[in-house]
Specification:
Distance between the termini: 34 Å
CATH topology of the largest domain: TIM Barrel
Number of domains: 4
Shape: elongated
CATH class of the largest domain: Alpha Beta
Number of strands: 33
Number of helices: 36
Low-confidence stretches: 889-894
Strand order of the largest sheet: 14-24-23-16-17-18-19-15
Bound molecules: adenosine-5'-diphosphate, magnesium ion
Structural class: alpha/beta
Mean pLDDT: 92
Length: 894
């Protein structure tokens, strides 16, 4: 039988896969000699077994019992002993942290028989009965599916009966009575009595934690965070300790640095006379951790020294959960802490300065997604009204939207394209769909470590929490603050960096990081964040192998891309050059009757094409500009069929000659295609419409010659779209070479092709014979590889596919490495075999997507090209990919 159960002294931090993050780190702390209550971890392997078969693996509970005896020995109490019972917490924890998404059950082992014993030994009967009450509710909810409201209703009724506002004011007698009521609720909903056998409670709790891996909210969270669904959760069983035994007890959450800004110095929340779940739930607003120094100087000193030790040990920001039971400190959890994007950059640079890590490692500690977040705009506060309230800045960003008061409505409104701010007194895991859908989250209760804050930071959502001035009336769908009432649908703006809540929508301006990356402000010595971004991005530039170019079609975009650090244009689309007022010229081209008319139409288009290219070559002076010849089907440049039909019908009804509209209508009908994506487009268009590509090549050549004559260094490259077979490219190439040869004063102009048809990828060796470069058009390659029409599938059934787990992320978002990626690898290998100096890049949107960039690095590409705003992200990720490949750590970009 496999070993499913591991004592804390057997594990360690590198075993997160098997023991979950929480279990691995509890083991690590135990080995470091820290005061962790004794316990053991049931492995994720056992959970996977359970999930596969629906039953607990045979022999598991025997192993549990054996380890439980060790815990009893070490803690000096016996599970089920009515005089002084050992109680247990049964906690979920997978490889990746999923805050509050799975279940944890506390106080397992408490029964009618042992409550009096606990009361006597703790000297606090009230706390004993309160624990029992909580156990029945938590167990009922989690193990037996009793609705939480059933218990909450009774609790609320009892509070008002006792005339108190707060659970803490309920007396021992109140709680004894509530226990009876809860037991009845339990029985009414389950048809059984609350189990009085401690082992029975333990076994069922373990099974319930396994099952909570697949609760709706856990599945949703994993989908949002791209965590695989097949990992399973571990279960941590440990001795309970009590923070609710009076003023010399308490519980808290702390960070070794500020997770919002990265500022050094311990940082956290503390709640005296409370159990851990009270802090996370944000039910009472805790006090800053520094208060603990005043309350219990000895525990505070011990805690801060443990935190310093943990940070040295993990070489990174750690967060912890701790409880003090009558002056004795217990460590209940630690992990490398989640942090805001700003903190991630700042801390990585700090750790380099402190000599803890090297720049390479610092680069692995930040992500392109975080950099992207830092480039989001900020509020322009020159015009800001007085804030309605100031709460705790929990997760940065500037968010405006209509207020909604429940998660369901938030998701509904967001689905219609509305921007919403989710306003709650406090959030709980059931609010997750609304938190994902909202631009920002605003709560009136809870600290920086409340559920709202932790989850928002993890997802990069803007969050202001604990804005206590707000009186949130969720049922009435409004909140009031200092005489102002804000109702559902009203617009507010929240600033997650300052905690301010403003009425109405505030204008935004570029973030300092975006301004720095655009070259508008210098980085050095200005502020810690810009300095950190500068150091890490320039380090990425030093170590990356992939070049980073941009997709840009105009001089303005090209200029912006260059300021963002683009090393050229990897894709200059020419289709917009056929739109606007030039559409008339295109119509002339399409309607041309005979060679003469066609030549005239093309000649009329030439000067404007040339002028476009001149602007781009100027903006990209000295850098390559890859111009893609016309790609989309021509009818995209004509008026829609329905519109033309109506115009012609109207003219005919009025007895007028429809004139040109009639000819256009005939052309549109003639050119109608069942599947335009697979029809006359790309290279096919160039081969079928005489002179079209020739005109474009001529415009490129003339523009380049013009720039060169003025002393500039234009570096045009010509790229042919949708090639499926070498002869297509050879034909275009022959024509283009002839035109280029006719133009004086030209630098060499490489001619290459997009690889975006699977056949091209599979015959790359032949195509490389006539191409000087390849550029993967991964969007079309994905469409044609999967047989998906992007516009038809993304809105239609992708959500279902994602829900069914057919893929974890859309292949249009992140490259499908095993299918489309294989085409990329084959084409790269065979292309290079045929032409060793073949340059290979990618110009699909995947070129700016972090995971895809890592794949392109590994596949040996030379460059990626992406939209100008993604260029800094691509630079950073290309650097990270190079370092990750070199250190070949099990590096995890999450
Ligand atoms: P989460 O992963 O959602 O934070 P946890 O498993 O950490 O859930 O547990 C929920 C709460 O219960 C935490 O505040 C934790 O500190 C507290 N807790 C867990 N185990 C114990 C224990 N053995 N004694 C006292 N409190 C505990
Ligand atoms: Mg926890
Ligand atoms: Mg394409």
């Amino acid at each position: 039988m496999p070993k499913y159960v591991f004592d804390f002294i057997e594990g360690g931090k590198d075993l997160a896969e098997l023991l979950g993050g929480k279990g691995a780190n509890l083991a690590e702390m135990t080995r470091l000699g820290l005061p962790v209550p004794p316990g053991f971890t049931v492995s994720t392997e056992a959970c996977r077994g359970y999930l596969a078969t629906g039953t607990v693996p045979a022999g598991l509970f025997d192993q549990v019992n054996r380890h439980l005896r060790l815990v009893e020995d070490r803690f000096g109490k016996v599970f089920g002993d009515p005089r002084d019972p050992l109680l247990l917490s049964v906690r979920s924890g997978g490889k990746y942290s999923m805050p509050g998404m799975m279940e944890t059950i506390l106080d397992i082992g408490l029964t009618d028989a042992s409550v009096p014993g606990l009361a006597a030994c703790s000297g606090d009967p009230r706390a004993a009965w309160d624990s029992y009450r909580r156990l029945i509710a938590m167990f009922g909810r989690t193990v037996r599916g009793v609705p939480a409201e059933a218990f909450e209703r009774e609790l609320a009724a009892h509070r008002s009966h006792a005339g108190v506002a707060n659970d803490a004011e309920l007396t021992e007698a109140d709680l004894r009575h509530l226990v009876d009521v809860y037991k009845k609720v339990f029985h009414d909903h389950t048809g059984r009595d609350f189990p009085q056998a401690p082992h029975e409670q333990l076994y069922q709790a373990i099974e319930a934690v396994f099952a909570s891996w697949n609760t709706e909210r856990a599945v949703l969270y994993r989908r949002q965070e791209h965590i695989p669904h097949d990992l399973g959760t571990a279960v941590n069983v440990m001795a309970m300790v009590f923070g609710n035994l009076g003023p010399d007890s308490g519980t808290g959450v702390a960070f070794t640095r500020d997770p919002a800004t990265g500022a050094t110095g311990v940082y956290g929340d503390y709640l005296a006379n409370a159990q851990g779940e009270d802090v996370v739930a944000g039910i009472r607003t805790p006090v800053p951790l520094e208060e603990l120094e005043r309350l219990d100087a000895r525990s505070f000193a011990q805690l801060t020294s443990i935190m310093a030790m943990l940070e040295r040990h993990y070489r990174d920001l750690c967060d912890i959960e701790f409880t003090i039971e009558r002056g004795k400190l217990w460590m209940l959890q630690t992990r490398v802490g989640k942090r805001t994007p700003a903190a991630a950059f700042t801390i990585a640079a700090q750790l380099v300065d402190e000599g803890v890590i090297e720049l390479d490692e610092a680069l692995l500690r930040v992500t392109g997604a975080q950099l992207d977040q830092l480039m989001f705009p900020r509020f322009d506060r020159t015009a800001a009204p007085k804030p309605l309230a100031v709460g705790i800045p929990a997760s940065p960003g500037a968010a405006s939207g209509r207020v909604v008061f429940d998660a369901v409505r938030a998701a509904q409104w967001a689905a219609t394209g509305e921007r919403v701010i989710l306003v709650r007194r406090e959030t709980n895991p059931d609010d997750l769909p609304g938190m994902i859908a909202a631009q920002g989250i605003l709560t009136s209760r809870g600290g920086k470590t409340s559920h709202a804050a932790v989850v928002a930071r993890g997802m990069g959502r803007t969050c202001v929490c604990g804005a206590e001035a707000l009186d949130v009336d969720a049922t009435g769908r409004r909140f009031s603050v200092a005489g102002t009432v804000v109702s559902e649908g009203d617009v507010v703006s929240i600033d997650g960096t300052t905690g301010e809540v403003f009425p109405g929508e505030l204008p935004v301006r570029p973030s300092p990081v975006a301004r720095y990356l655009q070259g508008d402000v210098p980085a050095a010595g200005t502020d810690a964040l810009l300095d950190a971004v500068h150091r890490l991005v320039t380090h990425a530039d030093r170590v990356r192998r992939l070049g980073v170019q941009a997709n840009a079609d105009t001089g303005v975009d090209a200029g912006r891309a260059r300021r963002f650090g683009a090393e050229g244009i990897g894709l200059c689309r020419t289709e917009h050059m056929f739109l606007g007022e030039r559409r008339a010229l295109v119509e002339r081209l399409i309607l041309a009757d005979g060679d003469g008319e066609r030549a005239a139409a093309l000649a009329a288009l030439l000067p404007s094409q040339r002028a476009d290219f001149v602007q781009i070559f100027e903006a990209m002076d000295g850098l390559p500009v890859t111009v893609r010849l016309l790609d989309p089907p021509l009818h995209e440049f004509l008026p829609p069929l329905a519109e033309l039909t109506a115009r012609v019908a109207r003219a005919e009804a009025l007895g007028r000659d429809p004139g040109r509209d009639g000819a256009l209508l005939a052309a549109v009908r003639r050119m109608h295609e069942q599947n335009p994506m697979l029809g006359l487009r790309g290279v096919r268009l160039g081969l079928v419409i005489p002179g079209l590509f020739a005109m474009q090549v001529r415009a490129i050549a003339q523009a380049a010659a013009d720039c060169a004559a003025r002393g500039l260094s234009p570096r045009p490259e010509i790229m042919v779209p949708l090639v499926a077979t070498a002869p297509e490219l050879a034909a275009v190439r022959a024509e283009a070479e002839q035109i280029l040869a006719e133009t004086d004063g030209l630098p060499p102009v490489p001619i290459g092709t997009m690889i975006e048809v699977p056949r091209a990828a599979l015959t790359a060796g032949e195509i490389a014979g006539v191409a000087e470069f390849f550029s993967f058009g991964t969007n079309d390659l994905t469409q044609l590889g999967w047989g998906f029409s992007r516009d038809d599938v993304e809105g239609e059934f992708f959500p279902r596919y994602l829900g069914m787990g057919i893929f974890g992320v859309s292949p249009f978002e992140s490259i499908d490495t095993s299918g489309v990626g294989r085409l990329v690898r084959i084409a790269t290998e065979e292309g290079r075999a045929a032409r060793p100096d073949l340059r290979i890049g990618v110009c699909g949107e995947h070129g700016g997507e972090p995971d895809s960039i890592h794949f392109f690095h590994d596949a040996g590409l030379d460059y990626v090209s992406c939209s100008p705003f993604r260029v800094p992200v691509a630079r950073l990720e290309a650097g990270r990919a190079a370092v990750a490949a070199r250190t070949s750590t099990t590096s995890d970009s999450r």
